[in-house]
Amino acid sequence: MIAGAVKVNLSREPEGEHLSRDRRLLQVLELCPDGARVVVDIGGRKYVSQDAAHWLHEHDHRLQIEVIGTDPAAVQQFVLAGRAGDWSVTA
Counting beta carbons within 10 angstroms of the beta carbon of residue 72, is it exposed (0 to 12), middle (13 to 18) or buried (19 or more)? Predict the structure, then answer.
């Protein structure tokens, strides 16, 4: 079996003019082959953006998406938001 993996670094909180940063970084998911493993590294980040929730949800049916980070609660928030496609499930 041949498999591929892609790592996306979302460890920085988007702010100010960088609010669309998550969207820009996660657009790579469109290019990943079906079945690829995607590691989303949130580092010490605490908050999920709507862009992150949307993009993770849009591709969860065809990619193996794994969220890693230093805070178990934050990882859970990203997982829940990605499954739902909306950041508000974490509030």
Answer: exposed
**β-strands 5-9, 64-69: how paired?**
unpaired
Distance CA 14, CA 51 (A): 10
Instruction: Mark residue 86 as left, alpha or beta (left: phi above 0; alpha: psi -120 to 50; beta: remaining).
Output: beta
Question: What pTM was computed for the model?
Answer: 0.90
pLDDT at 89: 85
Residues 50/83, Cβ–Cβ less than 8 Å = no
Buried b (16+ CB within 10 A) or exposed e, 34-66: eebebebebeebeebbebbbbbbbebbeebebe
The pLDDT tens digits for 32-91 are 999 999 999 999 999 999 999 999 999 999 999 999 999 999 999 999 999 999 998 876
